[in-house]
Amino acid sequence: MAAAAAAAAVGGSQSPQAELPAPGLALDKAATAAHLKAALSRPDNRAGAEELQALLERVLSAERPLAAAADGEEAAAAGGGGGAGAAEEEALEWCKCLLAGGGGYDEFCAAVRAYDPAALCGLVWTANFVAYRCRTCGISPCMSLCAECFHQGDHTGHDFNMFRSQAGGACDCGDSNVMRESGFCKRHQIKSSSNIPCVPKDLLMMSEFVLPRFIFCLIQYLREGYNEPADVPSEKDLNKVLQLLEPQISFLEDLTKMGGAMRSVLTQVLTNQQNYKDLTSGLGENACAKKSHEKYLIALKSSGLTYPEDKLVYGIQEPSAGTSTLAVQGFAGATGTLGQLDSSDEEDQDGSQGLGKRKRVKLSSNTKDQSIMDVLKHKSFLEELLFWTIKYEFPQKMVTFLLNMLPDQEYKVAFTKTFVQHYAFIMKTLKKSHESDTMSNRIVHISVQLFSNEELARQVTEECQLLDIMVTVLLYMMESCLIKSELQDEENSLHVVVNCGEALLKNNTYWPLVSDFINILSHQSVAKRFLEDHGLLVTWMNFVSFFQGMNLNKRELNEHVEFESQTYYAAFAAELEACAQPMWGLLSHCKVRETQEYTRNVVRYCLEALQDWFDAINFVDEPAPNQVTFHLPLHRYYAMFLSKAVKCQELDLDSVLPDQEMLMKLMIHPLQIQASLAEIHSNMWVRNGLQIKGQAMTYVQSHFCNSMIDPDIYLLQVCASRLDPDYFISSVFERFKVVDLLTMASQHQNTVLDAEHERSMLEGALTFLVILLSLRLHLGMSDDEILRAEMVAQLCMNDRTHSSLLDLIPENPNPKSGIIPGSYSFESVLSAVADFKAPVFEPGGSMQQGMYTPKAEVWDQEFDPVMVILRTVYRRDVQSAMDRYTAFLKQSGKFPGNPWPPYKKRTPLHPSYKGLMRLLHCKTLHIVLFTLLYKILMDHQNLSEHVLCMVLYLIELGLENSAEEESDEEASVCGPERCHDSWFPGSNLVSNMRHFINYVRVRVPETAPEVKRDSPASTSSDSLGSLQNSGTAQVFSLVAERRKKFQEIINRSSSEANQVVRPKTSNKWSAPGSAPQLTTAILEIKESILSLLIKLHHKLSGKQNSYYPPWLDDIEILIQPEIPKYSHGDGITAVERILLKAALQSRMNKRIIEEICRKVTPPVPPKKVTAAEKKTLDKEERRQKARERQQKLLAEFASRQKSFMETAMDVDSPENDIPMEITAAEPQISEAVYDCVICGQSGPSSEDRPTGLVVLLQASSVLGQCRDNIEPKKLPITEEEQIYPWDTCAAVHDVRLSLLQRYFKDSSCLLAVSIGWEGGVYVQTCGHTLHIDCHKSYMESLRNDQVLQGFSVDKGEFTCPLCRQFANSVLPCYPGSNVENNLWQRPSNKNIQDLIKEVEELQGRPGAFPVSISSETNLSKEMESVMKDIKNTTQKKYRDYSKTPGSPDNDFLFMYSVARTNLELELIHRGGNLCSGGASTAGKRSCLNQLFHVLALHMRLYSIDSEYNPWRKLTQLVEEVNSQLGNEEQQPEVPILYHDVTSLLLIQILMMPQPLRKDHFTCIVKVLFTLLYTQALVALSVKCSEEDRSAWKHTGALKKNTCDAEKSHEVLLSFVISELSKGKLYHEEGTQECAMVSPIAWSPESMEKYLQDFCLPFLRITSLLQHHLFGEDLPSCQEEEEFSVLSSCLGLLPTFYQTEHPFISASCLDWPVPAFDIISQWCFEINGFTERHAEQGKALLIQESRWKLPHLLQLPENYNTIFQYYHRKTCSVCTKVPKDPAVCLVCGTFVCLKGLCCKQQSYCECVLHSQNCGAGTGIFLLINASVIIIIRGHRFCLWGSVYLDAHGEEDRDLRRGKPLYICKERYKVLEQQWISHTFDHINKRWGPHYNGL
User: Fold this and answer.
1) In this predicted structure, what is the pLDDT of residue 469?
2) Cβ–Cβ contacts within 10 Å for residue 598, how many?
3) Which of 573, 925, 1119, 1729 is least buried, going by the fewest C-beta atoms within 10 A?
4) For the chain, how big is the Rg over CA atoms in Å?
5) Is pLDDT of 1176 > 70?
6) Which of 1662, 1645, 1658 is nearest to 1609 (CA)?
7) Short-list 981, 959, 895, CA closest to 1144
8) CA distance 561 to 687
């Protein structure tokens, strides 16, 4: 069928006969198929077969004459459009019919599936699929499982993680080669085959006939579609062909999914060579087939491949399995095919012809076999299919089809061999590809399935030379980008290295091939073959040497580089991936004695390669100055194999070491790197830009260190242990360029180093020596000890999260696995050295993660500064570790001052490396130490405490590691007379310490102070001949020593040169002697190391004779020396510790120390030092004073800052808050005074220059999210659970308003309710004030500020200039007092009737306002503008509820609702009631007072028509009752009992002139309370049953005439019931009502409770309002007495009220007119309405006012439940699975983040939802990242995650894929920020989202 498609698509037109089979056939495919099947089932089926062939020829006809090649493309396009599509369909239909043999295709599929022996899962997935990996069950590190198999298996307690597939993969469930059987899922546990019946022959018979033609068709089509143009075919053309082939390949893919039976048929078809030969040879008379075959040959040729017939080298193709190197080598070299590797590569060599030639010469000598690169012969469909798959750059569909077949074992082997056969071709295609990333992923997708299986890898290695092929292909690949190395000798260098700037390296194009190589080396059997094959090792070392010395850095000495190259990324990646990882793979198989041979092989060829390299770069003994390369893979291979040999294989080290000369060469480059590191850190390379620092950091960074710096240091340790110590030490100081500094003279000249770099370079050199001598990573530590040391070092720098620790601890990169060997020991070591600190949360604090922190005993005993220095990427981390150490010592009381790094005992050295300690016992080092101690004591410049610390460390190391036998004193033969050597008698540090040095001759500049006081020659004691002590010997001894030793080693001369050899003036350094102004001076020293140490002790302690030998008091010390007292401390402690150790090691030293201490030591050179000491003492005193002064200043500053923070920043803590100025004003002050935070002036707010409060206005729907049920809503995690917003506060209020609007007059409805439950405007302030004109200029300056702020100035946003809190408007402060004047608060004795009249009059007076609106003042302008801001804060749909748009009623409703929203929200912030009382934070920060003024000003612009004023209805009896009901056509007003009382309250108060009088306020409250109480009674009467009603009606009527009938709820209730019974309200007692009737019998108590609960919300809001308007404090109380406390606080309770008997709510009533009259009037309105609408009448009465606090949705415990449900869920709008799914945590809506599919008018779905659900605030959980994102208006921020793993850390983007669990505290914090509207203040990282989320 493909052919039909093929032909149609390609050819376009063709003969009509060919298009369809004969009409008869077309009629009934099924019948034809059945007939053919029957024919074929006969024993003699030739006729049937022929008939079928003919039919297939027709159906899948390939005879489509191609149009001229030129317009082939268009034809294809045209054909593809029309007829071809139909023909393809037809062909597919035929195939399906034929396969099914006449039956239905679906039934056929089902039948085949029944025979599926599904032992393997084999599910193939593509990139981005979510899969699992379990390290506990995996054998291969690449093992992966699909989610289904994972969840069906049992992996509890295993080390598993979820991951997003990068390149695609396949499920390994059921494959025991890759994973342990215990991990198989339930489906694949059954070892099948036994119980699966045998496949009946006739079921698949048709398939065997049809499929070969079908596949051939596909191949023909691929051949046709590929036009080999002059240039590389464009992506477009290839994709076009592939699109047309889509249905065919999908069909094949479906076949593979039918299970094992069908797969084995396909395997037969794909691998059968005969079929292939018959169909494709192109020899028949069929023109089309010929044409197709020619295209195939052209494609082969153009790929740089030969078809074997062209060259007569048929023999090459099938070599016998054993021969790895072929006899063909001669042929390959001879025919010169090498010259033309590949025509396309030729252009890449940009005419560097000479180089090209040399490169090729180099290759032909050792390349394996040309045929690997050039010859391909296809023998089966499978092979050609793979060829085209590669040619088309691995189309995803093809890859999936080829992989789907893998569960078939026979196919697996055949395919793997085919893949290997095409390996070179894959590499060539990859190099040319434009989309190398995608292609790499697809290649690895295939290869990882093949090569992870050890059995398979071994088989292919043996039968197809897999290793040869891989190594050769890699070598060829790198060949294309070689350049000449510039290391060392630029002109004559013969070495070539890869060019890191080339795309091949920059883009990691080599990655798939290297990754395969690493993968196969992880198999023992394969690696063994590699290590045994000498030819392969030679080739591999050759490959590695391409990287040796790449990316060379040359130090810029003059100006800064123009262009910083970033090639170092590529270089480090290449060394790690292409060199180090294969090395680790090989090392993992060299673990036991039996593998010694392998190590010897590697070491041998490694040394040979190194020798070649030294020759190629012309290296003798001096490295070229000012250049460094960090890449020495050959050195590192050598080092790592040496280390393994000694550690695991018990090899004798010396047997694998080269001669001394080679060792000297080997050490040079690694040492050069160490010196360069010091130079880079000393800023000597700054002109090379930042990238050089980047290299120095990468070199020691955790992923690289154990493949780079560790082997380098180890190699240096090996060299040091075998070379002459004096030579080694002097080389070190020479490399670090500090030789000239090491002189006794106080001044010197350094010819190679600037003065400012000297100190840090000296520190670098000493630090390096300390590391070299104390590091034991490869010198005897076990793996667990190493892990522990690494972990301690990382934890000491900083507390770490579990994942960052895993990341920071260098693993032995077992290739690709990411498995730390023995990760169980990781956990056990971690729990041994660290304590877990669970994350803590404070609202407003930063989100913390669970951290591990070192245990106290780790600080005490295991803190190792050396390890810390080695592992720090940033220098600051060393400081951080020391600070933490200091803090620990202070806290634990071990040491109060500033401690020095502690000296840590080392693991014993492995015997092979004992020689390393000779470095500590060589005279050169002792001279250096002596000199430095002397210089420090004499205060020479450029010496730091760090230098002293390192000097003492080295001395201590020497004492710890001294040779035992020398500690017995030799008789004092070694007196000064006997000494012939210049400085010290022997080489043992213990004895050299006590050796006195009297005179030294130094060369100094003439200006030096030493020259003036020339000591008289006579005193220079003869015993020390002047020459031996001459400074010259010392000045040059370092360089000279090194040269001398070098000559010795080279000449192997046995004669010891006794006299000091003056060095030849090397042309590289100018010898310091050559400077003319140097002169010689002789210094009198008369010190030994011991005496210097004791004097140093005095100097450090600042007291004379401070040192007293401790053993004189306590002889025990000498017997039991480990004293904790000395383990922590500063320099003084260190000196004491060293002297004690010296005394322990020899009696002689002990005696000398005692002697020195007896002499009272005068300061050494009398004048100079006293001056200096005086100076230091003065300095100390001055410093002390300065320090005290600083402390004082700091303390003062801190306290100032603290008080500011408390007043300004505290958003969420109600305590410790100092009231802000606004409310702090004293009541007696007439005018409030404000401070402007911009200009700093304070004064009252005036009409001309008003002051304003900094406020943030935001729309909020939090109120609308309150629900009335206790049960919290859960996030839906199944299809059944859905959340419907019917019971939210917003929905209920909406329904109520629309119900009212249906039956009543619109303007009246808009006064009967409040809006703002959704999209209400919330106003909050930080409490700071500013002049409004100052604010305007501030905004101007922000506008001109080019810095990108996180907010939009154009939208009026800014941050408070003082506390930086986010804000977007300024609320003007009303002139006058803040806390209303006493005058207004004095209770008047007027009776309530008078007050009611006054209220009505005041309301009627429009504009009766102290500030006249007519004159436009600044204040009124500002008030208007802020009102505009408030309106614009929320969307139009949340403001306009009127039926007539733009009606003033709308504005009126909106304004009083703003007040309502703010009061309600404050109530919620207080927890929903006022029991806590007091002024909460909100109170102190509240701007309600100012807000009220602004609202009142605007409300008074709209006067309510006096007859409609509800105040009348509340306080007067209306006479003409019928007037309202008279005019039927006009809608009536809303009955007063349907009004929302709180809304009425706000309307009444805002209609009054401000400031309001207290007694008016109380009067309004009293009147409204009567209405509220009546509403409660009515609601109660509707709720109860008929019987209850008649009983109450009766009991109440009896008491009606008692004195306080108006204050008894029984009487009132009975009256209400009797009044309402006149209407139809109670009549509808139908079935529907039963639900409403409460089942409980009403007792008087429960009635009282109901009435109180009904009234409480109103009382709470009213009390809050009173608190804000009149500044009265709220009393606190118990919950049960809240009603009585609030009502007395509001003045509803008569003052004489006694609280003995139970409280009755009715006693608060104070009726303005006779109760029964007014009630009957109110009830009459209701009856009028219920006449017609009894149903609705009842619904409107029962107001549920008990809302619970708003909450976010409840989340499940485990994140996986959310992830599994949502990450595959389809979006309801676009029905696709979103790329970034998200879910709203407020309402549970599922949305596409950034999904263009769901975009509406340029708004993406999340932004849209945030506006609809939260009025601009959205809280979304991003499913694929586990992170919460907040959208606030036009900005968004990532909030963090509320799901943490077992170690208390987030897993953003699910990168680690560990199980995550809800963190309740975090979720509470999130909810708290949502409710309190503080997202803007607490989260700092906001950015604009441009509606794109």
Assistant:
1) 92
2) 23
3) 1119
4) 46
5) no
6) 1645
7) 959
8) 6
Alpha helices (H) in 1007-1115, listed in sequence order: 1009-1012, 1031-1051, 1089-1101
* Cβ neighbours around 59 below 10 Å, total: 28
Please state, as a whole number, how many other Cβ atoms lie within 10 Å of the Cβ of residue 105.
14
Work out the number of other CB atoms within 10 angstroms of the CB of residue 667. Answer: 25
Task: Give the span between the Cα atoms of 1813 and 1733, in whole angstroms.
Answer: 33
Per residue in 947-980, pLDDT tens?
Answer: 999 999 999 999 888 765 443 444 333 333 333 3
pLDDT computed for residue 209 by the predictor: 79
> What pLDDT does residue 5 have?
37
Nearest-5° Cα angle at 414, 408 to 419: 115
The Cα 654–Cα 657 span in angstroms is 5
pLDDT value at 1172 more than 50: no
Q: Are strands 169-170 and 1078-1087 parallel, antiparallel or unpaired?
A: unpaired
Which residues, other chains included, contact 740 with Cβ-Cβ below 8 Å and sequence gap of 6+?
748, 749, 750, 751, 752, 753, 1035, 1072
Q: Does residue 448 sit in helix, strand or coil? A: helix
H/E segment holding residue 1372: strand 1369-1372
**How high is the pLDDT of residue 772?**
95
Angle (CA) 75 76 78, round 5°? 65
Is the pLDDT at 430 greater than 50? The verdict is yes
Q: Which residue has the tokens 């923070």?
A: 1205
> pTM here?
0.81
What's the pLDDT score for residue 1697?
A: 52
- State the Cα–Cα distance between residues 1533 and 1531, nearest whole angstrom: 7
d(CA 1499, CA 1554): 11
Q: Is the pLDDT of residue 783 over 90?
A: no
Could you tell me the two tokens for 994?
A: 């006590």
Tokens 């560790």 label which residue? 710
Rounded CA separation 1818/1806 (Å): 8
Q: How confident is the model at residue 1437 (pLDDT cuts 50, 70, 90)?
A: confident
Flag whether pLDDT at 1888 surpasses 90.
no
CA–CA distances in Å: residue 1720 to residues 1306, 1596, 1727: 25, 16, 10
Confidence of residue 1123 (pLDDT cuts 50, 70, 90): low
3-state helix, strand, coil in the chain (%, to 5): 55, 5, 40
For residue 672, CA distances in Å to 710, 869, 1063, 1515 come to 15, 19, 22, 99
Query: In this structure, what DSSP letter does residue 580 have?
Result: I
Q: Is the dihedral of CA 1078, 1080, 1085, 1090 positive or negative?
A: positive
Residue 1274 is classified by DSSP as B
Among 183-187, 286-290, 1300-1304, 1713-1717, which stretch is predicted with the lowest mean pLDDT? 286-290
Q: In whole angstroms, how far apart are CA 747 and each of 755, 768, 1797?
A: 11, 25, 77
The amino acid at residue 1309 is C
Closest CA to 1861 of 839, 823, 854: 839
Retrieve residue 475's tokens: 């070598």
CA distances from 1827 to 374, 1679, 1850, 1874 (A): 52, 39, 8, 16
- Give the tokens for residue 1454: 């909106």
List Cβ neighbours of 359 (8 Å cut-off, separation of 6 or more).
479, 482, 496
Mean pLDDT of the chain: 78
Integer angstrom CA distances of residue 1179 from 62, 1171, 1186, 1583, 1603 = 99, 12, 10, 89, 95
The amino acid occupying position 235 is E
Nearest one of 821, 871, 1143 to 990, comparing CA atoms = 1143
Lateral strand order in the sheet of 130-134: 145-146, 130-134, 160-164
Q: How far is CA 229 from the centre of its chain?
A: 46
Which DSSP state fits 1104? T
Burial 30-39 (b: 16+ CB within 10 A, else e): eebbbebbeb
Pick from 140, 108, 274: nearest CA to 207: 108
